[in-house]
Design a protein that fits this description.
The protein has helices at residues 42-52, 62-72, 106-116, 124-130, 139-151, and strands at 7-17, 22-28, 34-40, 77-86, 89-96, 101-104, 120-122, 132-133. It is α+β, with helices and mostly antiparallel strands. Strand 5 (89-96) and strand 6 (101-104) form a beta hairpin. It is globular. Residues 6-134 form the BFN domain.
């Protein structure tokens, strides 16, 4: 369940680390001082990118189906939450408004939360452990990253 001191994170986008083709979900703290990268699979990266780019899939994806099922059963998504790490693996959960907590990969929880317009949260200790300092004053890198996000297509992740 979410805790009162959880940090709300903004989903900046998905980045592809070349040449290895590793995908990272980038989450930003409210102060903009830390970025929390979460390594995800290509399919999950695509699912997140589609929502961020407001591109409806031709048929419902698994995350759309899950959200439809939750709603059909009278539920509401409260939030996606990063909960910690086990080795190199980031742990997550999807929290429903009735208090039900579903163990989930962070990428899946975020993909569903974005579709439900629910927040992405993490305890301060997780943000501290996973976060890296944001480059506050390097506007060239920031502009380059924004151009990357503007020009990236979901097909780039396939």
């Amino acid at each position: 369940m979410s805790a009162p001191d959880d940090v709300p994170l903004t989903v900046l986008g998905v980045r592809v680390d070349l040449p290895a083709q590793n995908h990272a979900l980038l989450l930003l703290t409210p102060a903009g001082d830390r970025v929390v990268p979460v390594w995800v699979g290509a399919a999950e990266a695509t699912a997140v990118a589609l929502v961020l780019d407001d591109v409806p899939p031709p048929r419902p994806l698994t995350h759309d189906l899950l959200l439809s099922a939750v709603r059909a059963l009278g539920g509401t998504v409260s939030c996606a939450r990063l909960t910690g790490t086990e080795g190199e693996t980031v742990l997550g959960e999807l929290v429903l408004a009735d208090g039900t907590v579903l163990d989930a990969r962070p990428s899946d929880a975020v993909a569903v939360a974005l579709r439900a317009e629910a927040p992405v949260l993490a305890p301060p200790a997780v943000v501290e452990e996973l976060g890296v300092p944001a480059q506050e004053h390097d506007t060239d890198d920031l502009e380059s990253f924004r151009r990357f996000l503007d020009d990236v297509d979901p097909e780039d992740f396939a």
